[in-house]
Amino acid sequence: MYGQRPYPPASQFRPPSVYRATHDPNGPATLSTTVIHALADCLGVDVTDGRLSLYDTVDPDALDTLFRPRYDGRSRTGGSLSFVVHDHRVTVSSTGEILIEPPARR
């Protein structure tokens, strides 16, 4: 078997599925509310049961302010923020895209 490496099955190379959501900056919900609802959907928990919170990881008010339009009304572009909640990596971009990656399987 010189020159050959035993590779794990292809299924082990697949990244865990990523949950995607989009925040509407012109809608009624704040960005932090959209993120918490997306996390609840991803984790399969009721958003009102109190087990899910952003406060241990990121300040929700700061998150809401970070991607708010500039004072002159122009959108903020090119930025993103990542943080971890319940072992899930959450990435929020200035475009309103929210990606939630589950923990890596071991």
Description:
- There is one protein chain.
- By secondary structure, the protein is of the alpha+beta class.
- Helices cover 19% and strands 20% of the residues.
- The chain contains two helices and four strands; from the N terminus they run E-H-H-E-E-E.
- The protein has helices spanning 31-43, 60-66, and strands at residues 19-22, 80-85, 88-93, 97-101.
- A four-stranded antiparallel β-sheet has the order 1-4-3-2, with helices on one face.
- A hairpin with a 2-residue loop joins strand 2 and strand 3.
- Mean pLDDT is 84; it is low at 1-8.
Layout: helices, strands, pairs:
Layout: E1 19-22, H1 31-43, H2 60-66, E2 80-85, E3 88-93, E4 97-101
Antiparallel strand pairs: 1-4, 2-3, 3-4
Provide tags for this entry.
106 residues; alpha+beta; four-stranded antiparallel beta sheet; 2 helices; 4 strands; disordered N terminus
Number of strands: 4
Give the biggest sheet.
4 strands, antiparallel
Number of helices: 2
The H/E string reads EHHEEE
Strand content is: 15-25%
Distance between the termini: 27 Å
The radius of gyration is 18 Å
- Return the structural class: alpha+beta
